[in-house]
Recover the amino acids of this structure.
């Protein structure tokens, strides 16, 4: 067994009574004494503070010192239009492989003289090696900063007490702010479907910053358990589960992230790994696609549940990739890959402990998002 | 009150054994969102007769003894969170067993507390 890493807030998590579990090579809080259900509901009603310092923070710099040149280079690895990404803005992207599968998903921000990229914890070593191997850019992993997320309807109220300037930000804006001499890199984004912020904080000030937020009535610490149910209600993918190297971005229902400029007929069509398959699937439609499911009744359909067209017989037509109970919708929900021609409203059947239970194909998100656009 | 290694509590009520889960189990499971209760009828010790789904995962409840399920607590299926609120006060099912002395083989409270540490 390899040693688990700890974030700079490990001692605080323990002090707060968190249950710590191994996750992507780190010891992370899965829940606090409040429990997953109440943490989830608290985030949707007030503000939740998440330690996501295990995620990778990377700066990409071109020799010219222009973000546009770094963006042009990074476009070789993602099917996303980064040239149109304005300074102070952030965009969702994914690294694709030669077969059109997804190596990881990421956030890319234009910060004027460089790009700032946030990648998944489990993929960060591989992502950094991938960028170093394929990009003629300086690839600088940031290892002296924590990453915190403050999410929920009260996130703006809470954060503006410390950093008044963030109130002017809109969804997917990024900016640099000062808090008591600490330089914060803030984005108005998150992984819960709520308005909120992700804040990169220098290690030396992280504990004080987290404590300052937690001292506020609206703010509670939230673990990975509620992070998962929140993102699932918001219809957001979890890499390694809902998308991976066996799924293309088109199959993954992420076509919204592939802008016109990178599609057939666009100004910079193709030119990313797996373009043949991805452009073909965009034109012809994929055979299968990620869809939302609402199981009838209250029994969750979890990851790995096989799906069938009918209540008896037949071969599986799909499989659940994420599933659980949505505390805000007070019902089970799941994401699954199913034949792309199945319309919304279709009932499919999931094999739950040997019984075929019905579930309806529904649009996502399951819970309306409240981004401040 | 007796306890199983699978974190069930057993209480004798007349000629029936009443079965629930311990506080320790309820806390480990986390917030319970769905409970599938057994159907009335014969069961064998170790049968997976009940499913508890929490926000985290699904777990089974095993039949603690050979016997016959005679009553289930429908209130739990209606309001699964009762298990977290009061695990000792909310039973899952009542069963009839051939010989109540079979309960003697299970742990008492002190032994159970020692097991969970």
């Amino acid at each position: 067994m390899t040693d688990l890493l700890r974030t700079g807030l490990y001692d605080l998590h323990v002090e707060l009574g968190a249950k710590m579990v191994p996750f992507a090579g780190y010891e992370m809080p899965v829940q606090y004494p409040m429990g997953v259900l109440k943490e989830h509901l608290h985030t949707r009603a007030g503000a939740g503070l998440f330690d996501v310092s295990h995620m990778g923070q990377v700066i990409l710099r071109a020799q010219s010192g222009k973000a546009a040149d770094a963006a042009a280079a990074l476009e070789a690895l993602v099917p996303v239009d980064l040239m149109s990404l304005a300074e102070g803005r952030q965009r969702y992207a994914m690294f694709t492989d030669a077969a059109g599968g997804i190596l990881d998903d990421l956030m890319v921000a234009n910060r004027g003289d460089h790009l700032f990229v946030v990648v998944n914890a489990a993929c960060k070593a591989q992502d950094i090696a991938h960028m170093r191997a394929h990009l003629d850019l300086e690839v600088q992993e940031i290892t002296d900063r924590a990453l915190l997320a403050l999410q929920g309807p009260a996130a703006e109220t809470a954060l503006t007490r410390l950093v008044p300037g963030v109130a002017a930000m809109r969804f997917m804006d990024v900016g640099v702010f000062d808090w008591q001499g600490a330089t914060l890199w803030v984005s108005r984004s998150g992984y819960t479907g709520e308005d909120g912020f992700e804040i990169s904080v220098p290690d030396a000030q992280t504990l004080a910053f987290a404590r300052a937020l937690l001292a506020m009535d609206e703010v509670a610490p939230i673990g990975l358990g509620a992070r998962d149910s929140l993102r699932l209600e918001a219809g957001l993918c979890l890499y390694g589960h809902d998308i991976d190297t066996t799924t293309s971005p088109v199959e993954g229902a992420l076509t919204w992230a592939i802008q016109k400029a990178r599609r057939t007929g666009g100004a910079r069509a193709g030119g990313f790994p797996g373009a043949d398959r991805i452009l073909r699937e965009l034109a012809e439609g994929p055979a299968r696609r990620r869809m939302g499911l609402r199981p009838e009744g209250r029994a969750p359909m979890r990851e790995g549940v096989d799906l069938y067209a009918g209540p008896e017989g037949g071969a599986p037509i799909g499989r659940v990739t994420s599933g659980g109970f949505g505390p805000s919708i007070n019902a089970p929900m799941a994401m699954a890959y199913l034949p792309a021609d199945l319309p919304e409203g279709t009932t499919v059947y999931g094999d739950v402990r040997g019984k075929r239970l019905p579930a309806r194909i529904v649009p996502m998100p399951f819970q309306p998002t409240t981004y401040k656009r | 009150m007796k306890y199983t290694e699978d974190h069930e509590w057993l209480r004798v009520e007349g000629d029936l054994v009443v079965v629930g889960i311990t506080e320790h189990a309820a806390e480990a499971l986390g917030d319970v969102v769905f409970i599938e209760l057994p159907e009335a009828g014969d069961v064998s010790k170790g049968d997976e007769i009940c499913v508890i789904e929490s926000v985290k995962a699904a777990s089974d409840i095993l039949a603690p003894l050979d016997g016959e399920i005679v009553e289930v607590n429908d209130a739990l299926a209606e309001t699964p969170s009762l298990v977290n609120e009061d695990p000792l006060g909310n039973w899952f099912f009542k069963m009839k067993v051939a010989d109540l002395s079979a309960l003697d083989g299970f742990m008492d409270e002190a032994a159970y507390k020692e097991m969970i540490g």
About this structure: Chain A has a mean pLDDT of 97. The two ends of chain A are 45 Å apart (CA to CA). Residues 154 and 211 of chain A are 17 Å apart (CA to CA). The helical segments of chain A are 10-15, 36-45, 67-74, 124-134, 155-162, 203-214, 224-233, 275-284.
